[in-house]
């Protein structure tokens, strides 16, 4: 059965039923998410005058600050001289202790305070306590395999052109890093099917997802969308099960993505993007060789990297706190010709007032992974023969 059965045409504005799960569509067992989406942000009504206009009954959702509560995720940071010296993420309880080399803070002293507050430890160090962002959570959560780095995930989402309501296939789940970002991007109307061959990685990804969802519910007093199905299966073994499913995009972060190509290709909508994340250029060569050997109609549009470089921008101070002065050189005007002197006088600007360009040259810095953008296209007629062993 088609996982998208039940969708309406663009003209039909009646409420859309919650989509059937991929797993049930595919006839395979999915891990049920532990939390259910009980409430939605807006109650919607259909206007009589404009039957297709869906209007929120409230003009805007009321956002309010929520103080720390047991069950919250807390990020403790020690900043000194614009430098992060220590960072730790922990789950807040009613009776626990936040322990570190910098001293201890009782959890009960944190409960009830608002995030963004500085707490003094038992040894008089100042720790900033706040809730972690999704990027910070992904970087600090317990890992099985390495995650897709958040800086790269955001670009992958852009390349795949993921929108709310999209259906995305992911392989493999790994530690669940990319899954969390996909889940946020597709929202409560979308779905993510996340495949993982290893039992330990499948469990790790699910636990990381559930921990984030539980903390989100505490911090935001609403549920994170339950839109991910974690399935413990080799992608090469799901082809038959998923014949009827169509995805808007596919994200592959696995050691040999070329083995997934013949399976994912029929599942990806025509014109859709399969984004691949790989650490080594040799893997990209194998990927492209896989496309060639299987004669898949995938256009490799881009192979690229995402680079971030952090800068220090701060007043220049000496150790004693005094300000470092900019020093003007002395030059001897008497040795200049009258012409030179006039030009200097005319053009003269006081030392330190000339605007300069000051930016890094384009160059390489630390490498996380290569991003490959493959687009499914319709081949021109006549189609190639598939005499290639695939
Ligand atoms: C680098 S990890 C993925 C990390 C993930 N993107 C994250 O952000 O946490 C690669 C995962 O792909 C899984 N994998 C490799 N080949 C697979 C296959 N044929 N089917 C399903 N999963 C596979 C591995 O077991 C591993 O957990």
UniProtKB/TrEMBL annotation:
This is tRNA (adenine(58)-N(1))-methyltransferase. GO terms for cellular component: mitochondrion; tRNA (m1A) methyltransferase complex. One of its GO terms (biological process) is tRNA methylation. InterPro entries: SAM-dependent_MTases_sf, TR61B_FKBP-like, TRM61_C, tRNA_MeTrfase_Gcd14. PROSITE patterns: SAM_TRM61. The gene is TRMT61B. Residues 71-123 form the TR61B FKBP-like domain. Residues 1-38 are annotated as: Disordered. It comes from Latimeria chalumnae. Coiled coil: none annotated. It catalyses: an adenosine in mRNA + S-adenosyl-L-methionine = an N(1)-methyladenosine in mRNA + S-adenosyl-L-homocysteine + H(+). Pfam families: GCD14 (PF08704), TR61B_FKBP-like (PF21985).
């Amino acid at each position: 059965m088609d996982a998208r059965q039940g969708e309406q045409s663009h003209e039909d504005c009646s409420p859309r039923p919650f989509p059937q799960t991929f797993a049930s569509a595919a006839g395979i067992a999915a891990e049920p998410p532990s939390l259910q989406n009980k409430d939605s942000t807006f109650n919607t009504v259909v206007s009589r005058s404009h039957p297709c206009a869906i209007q929120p009954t409230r003009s805007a959702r009321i956002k309010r600050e929520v103080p720390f509560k047991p069950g919250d995720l807390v990020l403790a940071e020690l900043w000194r001289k614009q430098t992060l010296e220590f960072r730790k993420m922990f789950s807040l309880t009613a009776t626990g202790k936040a322990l570190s080399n910098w001293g201890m803070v009782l959890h009960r002293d944190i409960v009830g305070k608002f995030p963004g507050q500085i707490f003094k430890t038992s040894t008089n160090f100042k720790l900033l306590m706040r809730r972690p962002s999704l990027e910070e959570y992904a970087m600090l959560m317990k890992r099985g395999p390495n995650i897709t780095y958040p800086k790269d995930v955001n670009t992958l989402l852009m390349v795949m052109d993921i929108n709310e309501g999209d259906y995305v296939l992911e392989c493999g789940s790994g530690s669940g890093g990319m899954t969390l970002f996909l889940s946020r991007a597709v929202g409560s109307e979308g779905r993510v099917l996340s495949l993982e061959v290893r039992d330990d990685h499948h469990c790790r990804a699910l636990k990381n997802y559930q921990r984030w969802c539980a903390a989100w519910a505490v911090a935001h007093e609403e549920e994170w969308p339950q839109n991910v199905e974690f399935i413990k299966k080799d992608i090469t073994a799901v082809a038959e099960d998923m014949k009827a499913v169509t995805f808007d995009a596919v994200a592959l972060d696995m050691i040999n993505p070329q083995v997934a190509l013949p399976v994912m290709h029929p599942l990806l909508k025509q014109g859709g993007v399969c984004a691949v994340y790989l650490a080594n250029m040799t893997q990209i060569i194998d990927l492209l060789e896989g496309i060639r050997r299987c004669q898949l109609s995938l256009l490799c549009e881009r192979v690229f990297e995402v680079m971030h470089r952090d800068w220090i921008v701060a007043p220049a101070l000496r150790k004693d706190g005094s300000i470092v002065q900019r020093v003007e050189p002395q030059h001897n005007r008497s040795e200049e010709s009258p012409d030179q002197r006039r030009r200097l006088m005319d053009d003269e600007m006081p030392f330190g007032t000339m605007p300069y360009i000051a930016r890094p040259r384009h160059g390489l810095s630390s490498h996380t992974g290569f991003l490959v953008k493959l687009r499914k296209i319709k081949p021109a007629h006549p189609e190639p023969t598939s005499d290639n062993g695939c």
